[in-house]
Amino acid sequence: MDYNYLYMTSQSKEEFSIRLKEMFSYTRFFHSQLGRLSVAAFNKGVLSTYHSEFEESLISNVIEFKPIRLLLSSSLSELINNKKIRFVDDLNDMPKTQHIRMLTDAGFMSSLSFPIVDNDKVVGVVFFNAKQKSYFSSEKIKSDFIFLASLVSSMFVQVIYERKSYQQLLDVALKIGHHRDPETSQHLKRMGMYSELLARLLAEDIPEITTEFIHRIKFYAPFHDIGKYRIPDAVLFSNAVFSDKERSIMNMHPIYGEEIIDNVIAISKIKNGQSEDIMFLKNIIRSHHEAFDGSGYPDGLVGQAIPLESRIVTVADVFDALLSKRAYKDSWSLTEVKKFFIRNSKKLFDPVCVEKLLCNIDKFVEIRNDFDDSREMLTSNRSF
Ligand SMILES: [Fe+2]
Ligand SMILES: [Fe+2]
């Protein structure tokens, strides 16, 4: 293997997933046994896949991306605590967790796991899998993969750093905004997760949805209503039916939200306020109340003219709002919610998003149950 070529590829200006894809196929040219290369982020005890490459589409994108909470006793926890590379010569000897079963079902026999360390802390793991037992234990093969893993690891640390500076600032803005937002913080968490899930499901048919798209929507969906913090209390916390005037005040929140982001950018050190990330975030904030038939606000955009990220967030937001109990309304049953989406497909919602939601409704309900509101005090809330 030409290490220099791999190094140059890792340093190119392409997006992370494009560089990884190229490095994976280059490595497979020399090591055809390599069937999977996966990079997972590790944060607060939870491992979540960032990007995976497979020899063929062996494993469903959606199963693979379920975050895993690591058990203290697992061998991966040991890898994270000791920051040591782990070799598994036969995956059949491992405890049969859902994740291991997914790998063995796909025919994988061995693995190499490499901790990604930044500032003495494990921030992720690089995984390699092969269909041959003990594949990574051979000395010659081992060195190629350790070299590749260190390149991938520094690429990943670089990705984290690039986003860290302004994401921290945005997080502060979200916390300040949320302080007087009647929404529960669980709603914000669920918004990231539903939107991510919907994007992953859509990715099977829509090439525009890249790994970067998925990570962006997961991180930025919770910001959709940040503009609400400029809405006066009398309107924001009202449980009565809105007058026309109150409605028009409330409908300003997407525009206020965009202005808040502009202010955050102005006080931060972000050089490029028009970067793809910022545009993506602003699209979510400005257009999450647009309707597919053009009857939404603030711009009355129609169909595909509404950014895809906004169409996804709209479906996630309404799905969550309908299932939630609020001071002015009861929660709806799942049957009623499904009927509402069927009735409003092509009207309020992108029909493709509705179809994915309805065909995979159990997965969305699972998120809902895992992050329910029960421990938070509920006040009024109007999501749409
Ligand atoms: Fe909103
Ligand atoms: Fe919302």
TrEMBL record:
<protein>
    <submittedName>
        <fullName>Response regulator</fullName>
    </submittedName>
</protein>
<dbReference type="InterPro" id="IPR003607">
    <property type="entry name" value="HD/PDEase_dom"/>
</dbReference>
<dbReference type="InterPro" id="IPR029016">
    <property type="entry name" value="GAF-like_dom_sf"/>
</dbReference>
<dbReference type="InterPro" id="IPR037522">
    <property type="entry name" value="HD_GYP_dom"/>
</dbReference>
<dbReference type="InterPro" id="IPR052020">
    <property type="entry name" value="Cyclic_di-GMP/3'3'-cGAMP_PDE"/>
</dbReference>
<feature type="domain" description="HD-GYP">
    <location>
        <begin position="162"/>
        <end position="373"/>
    </location>
</feature>
<dbReference type="Pfam" id="PF13487">
    <property type="entry name" value="HD_5"/>
</dbReference>
<dbReference type="GO" id="GO:0008081">
    <property type="term" value="F:phosphoric diester hydrolase activity"/>
</dbReference>
